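Listing S7. Sequence submitted for prediction.
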Amino acid sequence: MPDADIKNGEYLLVRRASDGDRDAQKAIYGHHIRYLTAVCARYVVNQEDIKDVLQESFIRIFSSLKSFDYRGEGSLRAWLGRIVVNRAMDHLKQSGRIVFMPLTDECADIGDCEPETAGVPSEVLFRLIRELPDGYRTIFNLYVIEGKSHREIAAMLNIKESTSASQLHRAKAMLASKIRQYQSEPETIETI
């Protein structure tokens, strides 16, 4: 189904898919899978795990579609993205891969590092973010990309707000270091 048909008839498509119409479900899947894969890949690095999280997400999506409240163009994509982020968080928590490092005096001396990204291709930046340790990457993405507050992140991950803030601080410092390394030696970092 062409993109224009999906946007113009998105509400009807959602209703059909919620009633079990396989063609409508395939259309939603086909239109959003690339975006949702990118969302998932912000949090989950292993390709097999990404596939598993997306499969779990689509099971949840199609079983919950009747409860989705369509609010206009973009509301479906936002809802789908939230489901994928939540499934990715569940996956990371269940796998025990999210490890949060306590704030040490050494970390307090890092300073406030806002990574300078000018001249860094987006695919390189994406790869550098994916190279961050799971805990750093998770909090960085939730805070910077998803726009969550430290309070919301703390509630999602069952951690203290100060832990969220310290992990973000460390993630930014590590990312800034990786970006500086790339900017001084771009040929040492492959692009995706």
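Caption to Listing S7: primary sequence and predicted structure tokens for the chain studied. Confidence is low (pLDDT under 50) at residues 105-110. Residues 161-184 form the longest helix (24 residues).
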